[in-house]
Prior knowledge:
Blueprint (H helix, E strand, L loop, with lengths): L11 E4 L17 H8 L3 E4 L1 H4 L9 E4 L3 H5 L4 E4 L6 H18 L3 E4 L10 E3 L7 E3 L3 H8 L3 E4 H7 L1
Parallel strand pairs: 1-2, 1-5, 5-8
Antiparallel strand pairs: 3-4, 6-7
InterPro entries: 2-thiour_desulf (IPR007553)
Pfam families: 2-thiour_desulf
Amino acid sequence: MEDKGRDTMKKKLVSACFAGIHCRYDGKHNRVEQIQELIKRGEAVPVCPEQLGGLSTPRKPAEIVGGDGHDVLDGKAKVVTVDGEDVTEAFVRGAYEALRVAQMLGVEEAILKEKSPSCGNCIVYDGTFQGVKKAGQGVTAALLKRHGINVVSEEEWKQES
């Protein structure tokens, strides 16, 4: 991969599942070799907002009901598990912890996992647990954007690199 100077800038925040960390709701990962290399070079730090918020791995699948991450932060929507448990508080707490890490490191960009109720940048599931996607952001992606951090999906990042 050609380095266009992009990866030598400020440290990035990345979804921990991209690092090969088994932190997804199903106990699996979404390892991305190029992102793993950023971490190895000290250019990125992995975080899992859901774990930072106190949720276990594995855990029940969760989706945002009634909006997207911005609506959750504004108290207009909730994050619930497939069996109806309200886990909004854990998602919000994890988003703020991820923001704290980003601010501590002077992060200006985050590469996050699309479709996640925490990390989704452009697409999230619609809250019906039927696999239906809609435009919107996850809770952490929305909070980071509100604080001036550029959020991109893995695919967007690969296209820019």
